[in-house]
Specification:
This protein is of the alpha/beta class. It contains 28 helices and nine strands. Helix 4 links the parallel strand 5 and strand 6. The protein starts with 6 loop residues before the first helix and ends with a helix.
């Protein structure tokens, strides 16, 4: 179940989830960013959690329903935050959600505060604020495995005495203590009554920073409850490595190498699973063709549904591997360093440092990324960020990148990986360049730099990365089962009707068919007639009518149809070309793989031109609607569509003209 609720409406709606029975208890998880809160949540709930964004925000919340001893429990993972009194979207949603839950009192609620044992003072500051709002909560002291390796001695009794709350040591990564935490939650499903300890209720108004009293109290308690044999147990290694990873020159070079290596690994490891998927769909097509007589039903199932779905699903291994590898990088703490390195260049081009977070999410989808620009306070900076975000390569573009690179460099994975990496960086470079143009023309001004916490380096969690890859893969398959499947059906109809009869052929075409049949080439004659039928169809007529507009880019009429269809959903072009090539394919019963068929039909220069066009073009109409809503005017949405279209067409034309001369 995915909740799409406003913060204050969420709590009351949650109590009605699963109306077939009453909720026994709700468990809410709080914690700082990088404290391992979501990892612990995943460890407790498994794959039964769903992710949702509250309307009006990009605040991501994970919700899971579990049946424990015949009773229904609700587990809620709120976004990471440093303060309940901050002005950011995360802080506002978490604070309002907690307040409404406490006021409503409709369902027994337990609060779990996840604290990083190696950076305890940050979590204790948030604990002080929770003490002022919640009578009782449970502290999960996470990352105990790391604390033990760093020879940190934590006085649990001291913490419980000072906070008047229960403390449970856990390690979300290894699973240590997780069972004890779950048993403690189940054993006491009702929040304990009681007053907040006076020593944690601190004044909000003092000289200097209004939160100085809390910070001082948290640091004092951290030193009192934690002793270590090492001077800087959690920072020494990070400081040494950061000299290289955050260096203005070497850090940027390392970032480029890491991204190139990521995409290279992606293509090498995904090659075998892609071949297995193609072999499965080839077997399925041959089997269906054997049992079904030739006709519209056979064409619909084999040439339409199976071929179209195969043209999209074949890229599932690379999509899952991409998100798996990115999750591993994020878990190590390196992505925060990458943000720090890239920020130097962002500010120079006119993008604010805070824009890095929306830019990261834009690599999944531009829509939540544009909504996420609300964290950018300066109106000028926010508008620039909105205008350039769609240039970044979202997940919907990945099937196109994969299709083109597999089509052009099927036997050269190294080159395929480099081209794939180049496509990603082309979008990033284009975003920086356009931000600089806007800075010098329409939206003059200087951007604000980024302030970000650099977490310690840690070993990544394979469990978390696998879950991330699974979630993204399922999301991709749901898209295939929804809008893409619908578009495939429409495309099959456009490519099938109107039907061409023998009497509609010209005399020259009739002579060609008769000549082939006379020499025993009946299959070749049938394939030739299929090509003419496709050109005669509505899809063929539409493509041939508009093809002169795209001819300077090297696109034939089939690619033109695919480009037009992709305005509904970018990833549709893979299925579109698979359907069109399959229905007009030469070779009869010799069913080729999707990438192989496309490689035979598209020359390298046109393929690279198509790749560049998809990197830069605005082909997502829902994004335009969100741009209009966030900016309050259609003029910015129209400007966004216009400049991206001109940029994509110009860059694709240059790519094709250079390609036909050197490829």
């Amino acid at each position: 179940m995915i909740a799409r609720l406003k913060p204050k409406a969420a709590a009351s709606r949650l109590s009605g989830i699963g109306s077939e029975r009453q909720l026994r208890c709700r468990v809410i998880f709080f914690g700082n960013p990088n404290a391992g809160k979501t990892t612990l949540f995943n460890r407790l709930t498994g794959l039964r959690a769903k992710t949702a964004n509250y309307p009006g925000t990009t605040v991501e919340v994970r919700i899971a329903r579990l049946e424990i001893d015949g009773a229904l429990w609700e587990w809620v993972d709120l976004p990471g935050l440093y303060s309940l009194y901050g002005n950011g979207a995360d802080e506002r949603v978490a604070s309002e959600y907690l307040q409404h839950i406490m006021d409503a009192d409709a369902v027994p609620t337990q609060v779990v505060l996840v604290v990083d044992a190696t950076r305890m003072e940050r979590g204790l500051c948030l604990a002080a604020q929770l003490c002022e709002r919640v009578p009782s909560f449970l502290i999960a002291l996470n990352m105990m495995d790391v604390a033990n390796k760093q020879r940190m001695q934590i006085d649990r009794a001291c913490l419980e005495s000072e906070l008047a709350q229960t403390v449970v040591p856990v390690s979300a990564r290894t699973g240590e203590g997780v069972l004890q935490l779950k048993q403690r939650l189940i054993a006491e499903p009702n929040p304990c009554a009681g007053a907040c300890p006076e020593r944690a209720v601190l004044c909000d108004v003092c000289d200097g920073c209004p939160h100085a009293a809390r910070f001082a109290w948290a640091e004092t308690l951290s030193r009192k409850a934690c002793r270590s044999d090492q001077a800087h147990p959690s920072n020494e290694t990070s400081f040494r490595v950061d000299r290289w990873t955050t260096h203005p020159v070497w850090g940027l070079g390392l970032f480029l190498l890491v991204m190139a290596g990521l995409f290279q690994t992606l293509f090498v490891l995904a090659q075998a699973p892609m071949e297995w998927i193609e072999a499965f769909f080839a077997f399925l097509s041959n089997t269906m063709g054997t049992f079904l007589a030739e006709g519209l039903l056979s064409s619909f199932l084999v040439d339409g549904i199976i071929t179209g779905v195969a043209g999209t699903v074949v890229f599932l291994p690379q999509i899952c591997l991409l998100f798996f590898l990115i999750a591993l990088l994020e878990d190590t703490g390196y992505l925060a360093r990458a943000a720090f390195v890239v920020d130097r260049w962002m500010v120079k081009t006119g993008l604010p440092g805070r824009a890095f977070v929306p830019m990261l999410s834009a690599h999944a989808c531009a829509i939540p990324a544009i909504m996420g620009t609300r964290i950018v306070e300066n109106p000028r900076d926010r508008l620039v960020t909105i205008l350039v975000l769609p240039l970044l390569s979202c997940s919907a573009r990945i099937p196109v990148y994969v299709m083109v690179t597999a089509m052009l460099f099927a036997d050269r994975p190294v080159m395929a990986g480099l081209i794939f990496t180049g496509a990603y960086f082309l979008g990033l470079i284009a975003a920086f360049c356009m931000a600089w143009v806007f800075k010098k023309t329409l939206l003059r001004g200087e951007a604000q730099p980024l302030l970000i916490e650099l977490p310690d380096y840690r070993l990544p969690s394979l469990r978390t990365a696998l879950w991330t890859a699974f979630d993204r893969g399922m999301l991709f398959l749901r898209q295939v089962a929804g809008v893409i499947l619908l578009i495939i059906v429409v495309l099959w109809a456009l490519a099938t009707f109107p039907q061409m009869e023998i009497g509609q052929l010209s005399e020259e075409q009739v002579h060609q068919l008769q000549a082939l049949e006379a020499v025993g080439e009946a299959d070749e004659a049938e394939n030739l007639f299929a090509v003419w039928q496709l050109e005669h169809s509505m899809a063929g007529r539409l493509g041939q009518t508009l093809q002169p507009l795209f001819a300077p880019l090297g696109f034939d009429w089939q690619i033109t149809v695919g480009v037009l269809a992709s305005f509904a959903a970018r990833e549709v072009i893979a299925a579109t070309l698979a359907v069109l090539q399959g229905m007009g394919e030469e070779g009869g019963e010799d069913l080729k793989g999707v990438a192989e068929r496309l490689r035979d039909a598209v020359d390298p220069a046109a393929g690279l031109s198509l790749l560049v066009f998809f990197v830069l073009a605005m082909q997502c109409l829902p994004t335009q609607v969100v741009t209009r809503r966030e900016t309050g005017s259609w003029k910015w949405a129209v400007l966004q569509f216009a400049y991206m279209t001109v940029l994509a067409y110009t860059a694709a034309w240059i790519t094709y003209q250079v390609g036909i001369r050197f490829l």
